[in-house]
Amino acid sequence: MALQIGIVGLPNVGKSTLFNALTRTRGAQAANYPFCTIEPNVGIVEVPDERLQKLADLVHPEKIIPAAIEFVDIAGLVRGASKGEGLGNKFLAAIREVDALCEVVRLFPGSDVIHVEGSVDPKRDRETVEVELILSDLESLEKRLEKTRNAARTGDKEKLKEVTVAEKILATLKAGNLAITVPLSAEEELIAQSFNLLTRKPVLYAANVAEDQLHSVSVHEARTRLNLPDDAQVITISAKIEEDLQELSPDEAAAFLQQLSVTSSGLSRLIQSAYAALGYQTYFTAGPQEVRAWNIRKGWTAPQAAGVIHTDFEKGFIRAETIAYADYVTLGGELKAKEAGKMRSEGKEYVVQDGDVMHFRFNV
Predict the structure, then answer these.
(1) Non-local CB neighbours of 131 within 8 Å, separated by 6+ positions
(2) Cα(262)–Cα(13) distance, rounded to whole angstroms?
(3) Which of 65, 143, 229, 362 is most buried by its number of CB atoms within 10 A?
(4) Which pTM was predicted?
(5) Which one, of 353, 288, 302, lies nearest residue 326 by Cα?
(6) How far out from the chain centre does Cα 6 lie?
(7) Strand runs (DSSP E) across 171-316, as ranges?
(8) How many other CB atoms are there within 10 angstroms of residue 131's CB atom?
(9) What are the tens digits of pLDDT across the range 273-305?
């Protein structure tokens, strides 16, 4: 399944540069003027997971296939986007299609790169983007609520529930807060999903810093400058350095990082944080043909996990032969784990755990 994360932000904050680094391409224009990205660029990115190689070392498969997510480089937003300013309508339509957002905010100084607001102010820039998203959500939700209230007058219980959820979210939006900050029950969450709100999507903030800020700007400082709560997902990254690293061989890249006194590329942290922001986890299948990581949402049951491989697996699900990753690796593979009594036969109610190694039995 294609998990999509939209890279959003004001023009000239480093979105396309970051996209190029993530996807190891020069596919996205990264020019020094607003709206150099018009049509969204899409790139598939592997999710780094050292567990895959450890499984492969035991199984010796023909192929190793990691989990993957799609990053979408979306046109820069400006004030008034919710009213169609700049490329506002295009921008908002593209955001509506993705599962989560990576909001790039500029922390690097420099007059050589134009800033649409004339100065670098991370808090203001973040709020500019989010105000436009809130205004767009307000407009769409008010229209939806008007129709739902009319339908609820007949006493339709489902419509009455929908009105309650919509009113709760609307009050939060009117107060200038993102819809994702509204606590909802599982039933209410299903209703809210049907609204397809921009600000109900999970957000990861990428604070884009200059090379000389890599060590001086901590995640805590970036969060403070963005005026975000402690639980907000924030990483600091230098998009320009990450893009430059893609031009180097692995040895040259390692030497360059060492020269910068950096232990690893920031991209791995960003990809893993983005994966977590979506509320996803990984399970594995392991056999002589391939060792593979599969994307599933946290809380999914065994049949739902089987359906990611093929819909027939979910429809005809019988059971899942399951070994915890730690047991699989510690004991030296499937056979030894089975002999040690660590292979479990799980039924339809089993909630899959991150790292489970699974074989599905099904009947079609």
Answers:
(1) 176
(2) 23
(3) 362
(4) 0.78
(5) 353
(6) 8
(7) 203-208, 233-237, 280-286, 290-297
(8) 14
(9) 777 777 889 999 999 999 999 989 899 999 999
